[in-house]
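Researcher: Please predict.
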Amino acid sequence: MILTPPPFYLTIVKMDNLDNSFGQQTVSQSERAKKIRRVFQLVAPRYDLMNDFMSFGSHRLWKILFVNNIPFKADDIIVDLAGGTGDIARKLVRKGANVIVVDPGIEMMLAGEQSHTLKLVNVAAIGENLPFADASIDKLTISFGIRNMTSMSAALKEIHRVLKPGGCYYCLEFSRPVMPVRPFYNLYNQYVIPRLGALVAGQPEAYQYLIESIRRFPNQEEMKKLIEEAGFSRVTYKNIFFGIACIHIGIKAAKL
């Protein structure tokens, strides 16, 4: 199946059960959305390079492992939500998948298009209001993006809505590392990453937000419960690199 790229567009929706935090601040729903969008506007030109510095390149291995955990058929339609510069989507496309990248940050998607020869189908929209019909998507992936949703529970319910019965949700995200790694990881996040953000990307405040969002993110069992509450069944997770990252998988129950 050949996908025709639609135009960029952005949808906004009012939501309940919100995360109103931005770093160590409490802000309104609209202000949080604007601030997060501004973060990714600032870091877009050097986002992939900065990820290499922050993780010593290990994020690339994590993403390869993530993609290798996603089986698909030739006619499956896969949405890569919060797809940013398209690194996950391109890996899937090279394996033969049909992928639509969805992200509210047009700057992030354009940065990916400008730095790669393989072009993608890009749609600018938010995870809490996906521009797809009910039960129309075979699989949905999200990599290091679910924590940036204004309402994680609303986004998970929206993901469940657009998936077909039997469809799968795959999430790669930072999580709670095991002891004794955790203290060293916390120190690295607190003191090293903001300085790297200043040195490499010139945006220490942006990377301070990213660290705070990781720190506040639910642990593995808490995240599993949130996915189940959104309606998914057979929810499982796999720790990566001592639990610093984690792959969560949920399945939308097939109709009886």
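Model: The longest helix spans residues 181-201.
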